């Protein structure tokens, strides 16, 4: 069997390597031309060319950068995050140590070495300039440090659109700092005449070093918006922890109702925290509405399901609470089965894997308790007063006002208005989010209408009973007034008769006095014994006459009389 000489085999290998390199360079060159058009279809074609180049050379830095930027332009933010997931600060992978070791090893192996001092046949002592040595050292540092700075900028923008605001701020600030340091280091190597922006590559040998002006401005504006949202979120969380629920609601409302939208994941988190503030301030309907919005944006949110189940149990709406607890149980079982939280790997559920078995046991106990209560017939005693936010014994005007406000706020036609202020990572999710929001808002609206009807019927019954009580009280008062009027009519006749009799008595007494005076004047000459006897007899007769007159007038009150000097 004939074998080819070794030098021919080496030449053949070199030929294949050179041809692959040329193919990769051709793919990259064509991809750059297509990307420069800024057309989505052309960028998709460029992405396929970059994928072909990476199939030949998987670690080619320029191809990786073009792929990441193409995915970012096509709004495939999840693909960018999966591609560069090792650079997400808050992401803790199970094999973090091994992955970091392998990535650092590959990074070190791909570093380009620069010979600062020559060896071999060249002379051992050679005069060289210190400035030239400084330029070479700084250029080497620039190439090593600048090699992966595009990752921070591209991944930072992707994390911002995915709702990972803290990670996005760290990545974008790191990328800007690296770009500034790289620009400063490379500017040392240049003379004053050669200083220009056109010579700075971003990464690799054939790209620009610094960011274009438009991209730099975009990143600066994005950073300012991220910082504003994080400041408001921090203030709202601080107010919520301090018990200032109205202040927390105000700050969260500034985020979710702002003129500029926010990413889907960040909005879901803000709605969830505002629901907690509403729950703490006893505004049940608003809290349920925010939980509905959170679950519309993120159907696998454990906190939203748990909070909404507790809210339904608070108002004694046991079937809906049981439904949410069953859904939560399915999520816990899926976490135990898959050994990971539902959703992408960068999503935070605020629950650890080791806590799931204990929570699942307590959840099963709670479900059994609710089923027992439902079997006992506790289905129709919903606390609509707590749902609408009123106290027992409220008036009709208070109920109508509260119902009007809730109807205007939770009308099904306006249930999808919050979707317009959300920035979705995938536009295909918009329709499903709207459907979930519309369905949950319709259920809440019907519950509010049932509560309004029930409370209005109760208030009408109370008003009817109050009318009956008022009628009975009015009839009783009218009867009392009639009796009093009759008594007042009888009283003047008695007074007039008494006055007439009294006048007659006075006249008779005056006549008696005159007759007595005449008798006394005529008998002045009689003896003392005769006068005394006559006086006594006349006085007794006068007393008898006065007593008869008083008895005839109805004046039966006793008259105090002294009998010491009287004798008949």
Automatic annotation (TrEMBL):
CDD domains: DnaJ (cd06257). Signal peptide: none annotated. It comes from the Eukaryota. SMART domains: TPR. This is Uncharacterized protein. It comes from Anisodus tanguticus. The lineage of its organism: Eukaryota, Viridiplantae, Streptophyta, Embryophyta, Tracheophyta.
């Amino acid at each position: 069997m004939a074998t080819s000489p070794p030098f021919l085999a080496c030449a053949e290998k070199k030929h294949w390597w050179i041809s692959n390199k040329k193919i990769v360079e051709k793919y990259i060159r064509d991809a750059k031309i297509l990307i420069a058009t800024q057309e989505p279809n052309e960028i998709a074609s460029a992405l396929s060319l970059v994928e072909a180049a990476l199939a030949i050379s998987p670690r080619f830095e320029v191809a990786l950068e073009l792929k990441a930027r193409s995915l970012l332009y096509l709004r495939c933010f999840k693909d960018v995050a999966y591609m560069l997931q090792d650079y997400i600060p808050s992401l803790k992978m199970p094999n973090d140590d091994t992955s970091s070791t392998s990535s650092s090893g590959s990074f070190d192996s791909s570093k380009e070495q620069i010979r600062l001092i020559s060896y071999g046949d060249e002379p051992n002592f050679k005069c060289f300039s210190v400035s030239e040595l400084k330029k070479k050292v700084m250029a080497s540092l620039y190439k090593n440090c600048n090699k992966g700075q595009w990752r921070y900028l591209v991944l930072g923008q992707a994390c911002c659109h995915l709702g990972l605001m803290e990670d996005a701020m760290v990545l974008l600030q790191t990328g800007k700092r690296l770009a500034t340091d790289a620009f400063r280091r490379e500017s040392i190597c240049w003379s004053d005449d050669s200083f220009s922006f056109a010579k700075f590559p971003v990464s690799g040998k054939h790209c620009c070093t610094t960011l274009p002006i438009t991209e730099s401005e975009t990143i600066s504006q994005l950073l300012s918006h991220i910082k504003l949202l994080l400041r408001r979120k921090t203030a709202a969380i601080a107010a919520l922890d301090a018990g200032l629920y109205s202040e927390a609601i105000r700050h969260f409302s500034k985020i979710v109702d702002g003129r500029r939208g926010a990413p889907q994941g960040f909005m879901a988190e803000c709605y969830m925290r505002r629901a907690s503030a509403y729950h703490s301030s006893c505004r049940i309907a608003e809290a349920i509405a925010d939980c509905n919005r959170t679950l519309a944006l993120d159907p696998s949110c454990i906190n939203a399901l748990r909070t909404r189940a507790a809210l339904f149990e608070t108002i004694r709406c046991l079937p809906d609470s049981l439904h949410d607890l069953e859904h939560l149980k399915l999520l816990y079982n899926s976490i135990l089965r898959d050994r990971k939280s539902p959703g992408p790997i960068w999503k935070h559920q605020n629950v650890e894997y080791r806590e799931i078995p204990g929570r699942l046991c307590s959840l099963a106990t709670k479900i059994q308790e609710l089923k027992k209560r439902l079997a006992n017939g506790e289905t129709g005693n919903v606390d609509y007063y707590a749902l609408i936010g009123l106290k027992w014994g409220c008036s009709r005007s208070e109920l109508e006002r509260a119902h009007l406000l809730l109807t205007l706020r939770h009308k099904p036609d306006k249930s999808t208005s919050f979707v317009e202020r959300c920035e979705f990572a995938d536009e295909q999710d918009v329709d499903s989010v709207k459907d979930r929001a519309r369905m949950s808002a319709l259920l809440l609206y019907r519950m509010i209408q049932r509560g309004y009807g029930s409370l209005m019927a109760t208030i009408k019954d109370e008003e009817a009973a109050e009318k009956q009580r008022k009628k009975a009280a009015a009839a009783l008062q009218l009867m009392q007034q009639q009796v009093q009027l009759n008594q007042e009519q009888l009283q003047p006749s008695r007074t007039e008769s008494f006055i007439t009799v009294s006048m007659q008595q006075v006249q008779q007494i005056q006549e008696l006095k005159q007759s007595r005076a005449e008798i006394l004047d005529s008998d002045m000459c009689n003896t003392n014994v005769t006068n005394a006897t006559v006086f006594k007899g006349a006085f007794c007769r006068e007393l008898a006459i006065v007593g008869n007159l008083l008895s005839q007038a109805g004046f039966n009150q006793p008259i105090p009389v002294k009998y010491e000097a009287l004798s008949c």
